[in-house]
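Input chain follows. Return structure tokens only.
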Amino acid sequence: MSFPKSFLWGGATAANQLEGAYDVDGRGLSIDDVIPGGKDRMKIVQGPDFDWKIDPQYTYPNHEGIDFYHHYKEDIALFAEMGFKAYRFSISWSRIFPQGDEVQPNEKGLAFYQNVIDECLKYGIEPVITLSHYELPLYLAAHYGGWKNKQLIGFFKHYAETVIDRFGDQVKYWLTFNEINSAAGFPFMGQGMIAKTGANDKKNVFQAWHNQFVASAYAVKAAHEKDPAIQVGNMIIYATNYAYDANPVNQLAALKFNQGFNYYCADVQVRGEYPAYSESLYQQYGFTGADLDRTPEELALLKKYHVDFISFSYYMSSVTEVTGKDDEKTAGNMLGGVKNPFLKESEWGWQIDPVGLRIGLDQLYDRYRVPLFIVENGLGAKDTVAPDGKINDDYRIDYLKSHVEAIQGALDDGVPVMGYTPWGCIDLVSASTGEMSKRYGFIYVDMDDQGHGTLARSKKKSFYWYKQVIASNGDDLSTDHLNY
């Protein structure tokens, strides 16, 4: 089956990983501004002593990012040259409300995003905007305790209403919380909670999720009241999960993994109600649904203002094994797990499984019957600049080609896929490691892990390949005729 003519080919980024200008034009600090660079960054912020401070012994690469704040015209022109139909980016909440709880927005922040939107539309590129992409204003985390505090619902509601009212005439696709289910293993990024503010108490995580579900519903309400044609999606990590073997114990454990990780947040945001397995899930952590602060009015809001589509990131699949038969581990996107002997893996240990994407698309559509949008997918790798300046990233082309073929397979299966925006379409700072050397982009940015470089942009071989894919609407995935 051919890709639909309306298919949204494009790319995806996040403000905290590429904008830079972290203290420019009235922007306040976000939680990401205090995460140091380097492979130990997650371990540091999960430690018992971490306390929301910038520590001079560390470096903070995202403070500069790739300076998209001052290069956005150049970068969007390159996206347009590839033929992008859509560009997924996030608004930095603290650029609009520096502390997060103000009444009046920062007009300079709004002006910046207006300029980005205008630049996209100039080239016929649909903006796809994420409202919260691991960018909670630092003040809301440090002084309110993060998303476990119900006051954040009102602050987010005001923020969402502000930007949707300002940009809703031009922006038809919105996402609420990026990878909302990532808090299952890492509440810092998605919920703004650390050990000192209760991140290790699962009841706080589930309360924070409820508060985010309500906040998301308010965003859907604001968008639909602004214009019924606006579509709002949730955004989850989807890690297609396999039981290690036919042992019923592993099969049951895989089902429980899917309920607790892949489906819980989507069940509420798409179906508008808590799933039947909720109580069983809570009891695993020693509390009940009655221990959560959920009002009848909030539950009614969730039911009325559920999302219009599901967007998700897919980088890898996972394996569940609970009998101790195999303990060889692998790394992954916010979660690791048992190594799958049938799969290859990236330099960072992420298992490469394009068939898993097709399976995931089928599973999600079978369960929810709403359109699906793959808003993150890609290969993090070290790229080498040849003496002639070329970057021959055939490994990235191979990865992306196999995943585009998987999407085509899902279309054959009858799954309505809206679009595909590979992650880090231009090189940016890695969220998991704070490195520039873990590159995803079609566009190379001259910047190293120590913050040295010219920030010059150059096109990789994959740039020309993806341009061809878009021009052919997915019909030509070959590299035979690339002019590079």
